[in-house]
Each structure stands twice: as C-alpha cells, then as structure tokens.
Fold:
Amino acid sequence: MSWGAVIQWNTSSPSHYELPSSINSYVLYCRNVLIEKINKTIIPKEANGFALALLLGVKMDMNKALVNAYTQLGIIHIIAISGMHLDILFKSLKRLTSYFPKNKIFNIIEIVILLILVWTYTFMANASPSIVRASVFFSIYLLGNFYALSSFTLNTIAGGILILILTNVRGIEHIGLQLSYAAVIGIHLFYKILYTSVDIDNPIIRFLWSNCCVSLAAQLTTFPILLLHFHQAASWVLVSNFIMVPLSNIILYGLAIILILPKGLAIYGGMLVVKYIQFFNQFVQQWFLNTKAGTLQITMSVLQVIGYYLLLLFVYLWIYQKKSSYLLAVLGLITCYTVLKLFS
Structure:
C-alpha cells in the first residue's frame, strides 16, 4: 500500500528528470573521449558506425540493409545497448576490484567505484531504457552484497521493476521492459535445468551448450510476448542467437581493450577489430541472403499468453519439485485448450 501511494504521488504529475550540470558535463566529456578514441582507431565508416552502435547505441551511421539483416535473423539486440553490454563491463570491473583487500573501507571504495562506472556508462549511452533496467538490477545486487543480505534473484528483479514503476508508472506497459524482464526470469529459472540435463565432458562443447541453453531459456519466456504484440517471430532466432551472440562478445572485448590501450598500440588493435567487424557483418549478410531468413506469422491472444505461462510454470514446478500433481495440471491445461480449439 505504501509503495502504491508513493507511485501514485510521484506519477500523478510526471516531471522531466535532468542531471545536474556538473554531472552532465562529466558524462559528456567521457562520451566524447570514447567517441574520439573510436574515430581514431576504427577508421572505415561502416566499421566505425558499427562500433559506436555497439558501445553507445548510436545507429545513425549503420547500413540500413545490415540493420534489416540483424532484425530478420532475430539478433537486433546485439547492436542495442542492453544488459549484455553492462554484464561484460560489470564482470570485468569486478575482476579488477577483486584484488582489493577484504575489509570495510575497501568494500566501500569498491562499491562506490562500481556504481559510479556503471551509471557513468549508462548515461554515456543516453540512458536508454534497456540499459537503465540493467543498471538498476546491478545496483540492487551490489548494495545487497555490500550489506551481506541473502540473495534471491526474483526479489532483485521485482525490486528493479518497482523502482522503474516509481519513476514512470506507465513503463510497465512498455514492450521493451516486458521482454527484458521476461528474458531475465527465463534465464534464471530454466538455464540451470537445461544446462544440467545433459552431461558434457568436452569443454568446447560444454561452452557451446551453455550458450544454447541461455538462448533457449530466454526464448521460452519472451516468445509469447513477441507473438502477442507483433504476431510474428524471427524464423532463425534460436540458431542465430546461439552462434552470433558469443561472436559479438569478442567485438565488445576487443573495443574495450582498444579504449584501455595507449594510442600507438590502440591503432594496431583497431586494425584487427576492423577486420573482425567486417567479417562479422559480412557473415550476417550472407547468412541472411542465403537462408532467406524471414518471420513466422503466428498470433496469440492475451488468454493464450496467460495459458502458456501457466503451462510453463507447472512444467517448471514439476521438474523442480518432482510432484505428479503439477504434471497432471500440465496435461489438464493442454486438454482444456485442445477441447476449446476443437469446438471453437
């Protein structure tokens, strides 16, 4: 009730939030330094536009045909600033701060550095909704760890949603928010179940299977939302995410290394990254043209989406708790749906 009152009070007369001028100047300075470094090391126009889209979400200089290929293959999220980018930044920073001595003072220094860098990058990327959602999630996670609170990921997700609703109560209707949190919940609930369902000794195959499980887990929970809003889905979405997401991470790490390196070494590093970007984009275009990737036209109603999520919930509970009653519930839902479709 208190949350509801605060949300109602805060959103009854929506206001535009602006950064203080000093913070805004600092963010712009960091952004300009990053863009200048990319412009000096990634020279070819198409590769430069791709690098800026990947780092800052600037898509103005990207080839329209290339963007269409990414869209049709269901991997447009690769060139949209999202939690994937922040996750790489966050894990890299955590590795660096892990060398700090383990005491209260250095714990405070660590959390301050991490929060400042995470939110600086968020504002450098123009605070797009997708990266703000990820930043809120990581901030809650960091603060919870700092106070040694017990971790329950679904509560962290729910806390992030509450904070976002507090700033904009209509945000819950945004398709991006629904897809983002559906993907996170899907990965949290189903990734481990899928990954441990097969025993693999080979580390390379295990890595590939892990990526496949992440993609599949996210698709399980986002698929009905896509069909509800757009009535279509990319036909190659599972395969393309399985192959292209790990390959795109190499570009992100390469760009991060370029930004850290001194100017002389960064130019040589930039040449390698340019070659890889050109290969990557050419591979995407050829795949799109040769496979004739398109969209599957499927329509789902609100009632069908609710039924799908109930079915998914009962399947999860059956796998997790091994109770036959949940399996009976799954069979009951399938039977009811079949009968309704038969006589509709």
Residues 263-291 form the longest helix (29 residues). The chain has two domains: 2-300, 301-344.
